[in-house]
Design goal:
Blueprint (H helix, E strand, L loop, with lengths): L4 H16 L9 E6 L2 E4 L15 E4 L4 E3 L8 H10 L5 E5 L2 H9 L9 H6 L5 E2 L7 H11 L4 E4 L3 E6 L2 H23 L8 H14 L1
Parallel strand pairs: 6-7
Antiparallel strand pairs: 1-2, 1-5, 2-3, 3-4, 5-8, 7-8
Helix pairs in contact: 2-5, 3-6
Bound molecules: zinc ion.
């Protein structure tokens, strides 16, 4: 199969955005895009800010390498696991954005009812128990959340998001980090004030109307 150059270009663009926004350092993070029964994924050991088309790796749904001179990301198992569990997933993004990762390192979960746009878009962003990166443990740690959540913070590690396409997965990462930052700032201003039950009900009603 010829991989569309457009798909490769888009994946590289998202990687650069993740790097430029400071969501990863050095060679951290990994991104994948589902293309039918194959997955285009970032390689191991290369910065997301300086990737080239030929660095990308094509694997099958089980993670077997089909094409590419480099080896796929060491977190490939997490990506194939997510595609297996989520038929609707078109792309997966994993990064270590500082505010969300600080919460992950402090094992502090994000509150669920703080900002209307987060309630409407992502809903609850769970904190998954710590697992050694690049092992099957990571799949186990997110297993209980991945079915119902598109953004997960992983203890002492970082964030993983699932989207219908690359933009969608990236925006979910960006939104999670923005939310973590606002939460951090509000906490430092003297504490957060979650929305009341009545206010939440009203927000959820606007969602019903727009469906
Ligand atoms: Zn990581």
């Amino acid at each position: 199969m010829k991989i569309s150059s457009l798909a490769k270009k888009k994946l590289l663009e998202i990687c650069k955005r993740i790097y430029d926004k400071g969501f990863v350092a050095a060679n951290d993070g990994n991104v994948s895009l589902k293309l039918g029964n194959k997955i285009l994924v970032t390689p191991t050991g290369k910065s997301k800010g300086f990737l080239e088309s030929e660095d990308l790796v094509l694997v099958d749904l089980k993670g077997k390498k089909l094409k590419g001179k480099l080896n796929p990301t060491s977190e490939l198992m997490m990506h194939t696991f997510i595609y297996e569990k989520r038929e609707d997933a078109g792309a997966v993004v994993h990064a270590h954005p500082p505010y969300s990762t600080a919460l992950a390192a402090a094992k502090i979960p994000l509150p669920e009812f703080l900002l209307p746009e987060v309630i409407l878009s992502l809903g609850k962003i769970p904190l998954a128990p710590y697992a050694t990166p690049s092992t099957r443990e990571v799949c186990k740690s997110i297993e209980g959340f991945i079915q119902d959540h598109d953004a997960i913070i992983m203890e002492n590690h970082g964030v993983v998001t699932v989207g219908k396409d690359l933009d969608d997965a990236f925006f979910k990462l960006e939104r999670t980090e923005h939310y973590s930052r606002i939460y951090f700032l509000a906490k430092n201003l003297g504490g957060i004030k979650e929305l009341t039950k009545k206010e939440i009900e009203r927000i959820l009603k606007t969602k019903e109307k727009s469906v």
